[in-house]
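Lab notebook, bench 4. The sequencing result for the construct came back, and we need a structural model before the next group meeting so we can plan mutations. Quick request posted to the team channel:

Model the 3D structure of this chain.
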Amino acid sequence: MATLTSAVDRTNDAMNLKLTLRVYNYAKIDSASLSSSEKVADAIFHKIGIEALWVNCPLSEQQVTLYPACLSLMGTSDLVVKILPLRMAAKLHRSNDPLGFAQTCSESEPACELNIFDHPIEELATHGYRADRIMGYAFAHEIAHVLIGRAHSDEGIMRAAWTAADLQRISLGLALDFTPAQSSQLQCSAMRRN
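Done. Here's the predicted structure in token form:
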């Protein structure tokens, strides 16, 4: 009976895991598309017991009062998401990272940052893929890098580059998942950050 109780407690703990994502939308993606992308990432993390809370943040000093939720101190479960247009992404010279990249941060470090590049996602949209869904998966991929490190896998959401078949699955709303091992690592990291 104790084993069953422990398993239930771990499941309940996993369902209470939260990450707060402070979004700086430098690419000025319209709010409906951005919300749709956030919902895609929400669904991915919900499947593994992590809740993502999205907070829009100001892009200038003049806008600070319009975003009071973004003014609170950041803890280790707060991540900074920057969505960058081409002109900003080009300054970072990250050719190995097709859709974005994330900082490597210790679990005790607050406000770890991840960057999403808008231009290649918009380019994929010109080939018939759903930009909002691709961006949601890019969010999930880079958030996972913050939580479990820079390693990629040969399958699923953590591939270094998604294939045309992967992009088609994403666009159609079919799951491209974390592996069971990655899911467990993500839960453990989120638990330590909370």
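The longest strand covers residues 17-25.
Will bring this to the meeting.
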